[in-house]
Structure prediction request, 248 residues.
Amino acid sequence: MEKQRMTAKKASLAEIVGGRFVQKGGLESSYVLTALGRRLSRVRIMGLIVDKFVSPDEKYATITLDDGSETVRCKSFVNIKIFDGLTSGDLVDVFGKVRFYGGEVYVTPEIVRKVPANADTLRALELARIYSQQRKLLNRVSEIEKSTADMAEVKRLTAQLAPSEDIEGVFEAEETAKTVTEEKVSAAAENKGKILDMIKQLDAGSGTDYAELTAKSGLPEAAVDATVHELLESGICFEPRPGKIKKL
Prediction:
């Protein structure tokens, strides 16, 4: 039996770029998991062409799309004729698969259509409706999860809301968000311990200089500022004078 082609999901470029690429093996399709729990493998995107490139040997070509929210490159290998007749400033509707390489999420196009200048307004309305429905699904799943601790019951009740793949995407997004939060909490605790140790080590008696603390910590300035603010707010440290911090 011939395998049915996966439906192309309409998505904004920001949703694709802002998601987390999930690499699958074998016959399973890789996808971008978004914050709204959407799994984007085959997509339909629209944007203005802001750049076009064709390699000298004509075996590789790209167009860069901009939809006002982000930019994404569409890359074609060997079959570069798919971009024939297209130039910067054209508004195009692209069907393709999401790929990831070298830290970049991109799309390998299957169909590229030039569309009228006002087509992006309709697409924006369609996406607004899609995202509104997805948020309602997330909220309903969350309500069900709060109503019972029995995971089997949660799965039974949520199965009535949407196709299983959509529900699995929501669960995966929730788990990813939880993991990210735990990692942030762990990193903050680690930063706090490190900064506190350095404050004590660098204090020659009159307190530790903020600039020296930032320079020698090896941490981003924003992370140092947030940690210092927490130490002052909690009363663990104080400012003996402007520009200095000291442990109580």
About this structure: The chain has two domains: 9-117, 181-247. The mean pLDDT is 90. The chain is about 40% helix and 25% strand. The CA atoms of residues 65 and 71 lie 5 Å apart.
